[in-house]
Write a structure and sequence with these properties.
Layout lengths: L10 H10 L10 H8 L3 H14 L2 E3 L5 E3 L1 H7 L3 H21 L2 E8 L2 E8 L14 E3 L4 H8 L3 H8 L13 H14 L2 E4 L7 E9 L2 E10 L6 H24 L1
Antiparallel strand pairs: 1-2, 3-4, 3-8, 4-5, 6-7, 7-8
Helix pairs in contact: 1-2, 2-3, 5-9, 6-8
Keywords: DNA-binding, Transcription, Transcription regulation
Organism: Kineococcus gynurae
Pfam families: HTH_IclR, IclR_C
């Protein structure tokens, strides 16, 4: 038994550990690296990976590494957060993207992180870390700050307890972040300035269904010093449209 492997682990927990070994920083993994990250013996990992690859949950590349398979992505699209929110939001994202030609993002809170459920890339070359399906820290992204501002107290407490630095401008002071969250609630938007990646700033607003903030809509640009007001106004129009459409679906 691996030193990292707990006795009595179920097959399901082992399969989930293998799938959970992948993240935005580890999109391709060798068998040995998969075993290490999953806390499983290589022999056990080899058997599980073979079954997962046969089913389509994992793909084996030409150089022998493994990636998340297309079948998992297809299943993920069936989740309500994807099928309902993405389909309703799509025309609003497309309109805003056409008007600004900037990178537009739609995100939801997933535990203590922000999960990106849709994104349209901008024409201007801006370093954007997020991709559809990526999870990123809430404190370093505008969409994340919006969602954190409306998150339960226990989530805020946990996030405040581990404010990791991603660039020299990442906010790692709980007091400063708390002030930003207060402003996000009162002003209805949040911003970042090169806090997740150098050369990229962002602004985001909440998407509200009924009385609940269910998502955040944001845009990533090179600089917010010019045109910030217009971007916020456009985001608010789009977010309100998404919220109204979702609310109408609830009543149907």
């Amino acid at each position: 038994m691996s030193r990292n492997e707990s006795p009595g682990r179920s097959v399901t927990s082992k399969v989930l550990a293998v799938l959970g070994a992948f993240d935005p920083g580890a999109r391709e993994l060798t068998l040995s690296r998969l075993a290490e990250r999953a806390g499983l013996p290589v022999s056990t990992t080899h058997r599980l990976v073979a079954e997962l690859a046969e089913w389509g949950a994992l793909d084996r590349t030409t150089d022998g590494t493994y990636t998340v398979g297309r079948r998992l992505w297809t299943l993920g699209l069936l989740a309500p957060v994807h099928s309902d929110l993405r389909s309703v939001a799509a025309p609003f994202l497309q309109d805003f993207h056409a008007a600004t030609r900037a990178t537009v993002q739609l995100a939801v809170r997933d535990g203590d992180q922000v999960l990106y459920v849709d994104r349209l890339s901008g024409n201007v070359s801006v370093p954007v870390v997020s991709q559809i399906g990526y999870r990123l820290p809430m404190h370093a992204t505008a969409v994340g700050k919006v969602l954190l501002a409306h998150a339960p107290d226990d989530v805020v407490t946990r996030v405040m307890g581990r404010l990791t630095r991603h660039t020299p401008w990442t906010i790692t002071s709980p007091a400063i972040l708390d002030g930003q969250l207060r402003r996000a609630r009162s002003e209805g938007f949040a911003t970042t300035g090169e806090e997740m990646s150098r050369g990229a700033s962002s602004v985001a607003v909440p998407v509200v269904r009924g009385d609940e903030v269910i998502a955040a809509l944001g845009v990533v640009v090179l600089d917010l010093r010019r045109g910030r007001g217009e971007l916020i106004a456009g985001l608010r129009v789009a977010a309100q449209g998404i919220g109204r459409r979702l609310s109408s679906l609830d009543r149907d």
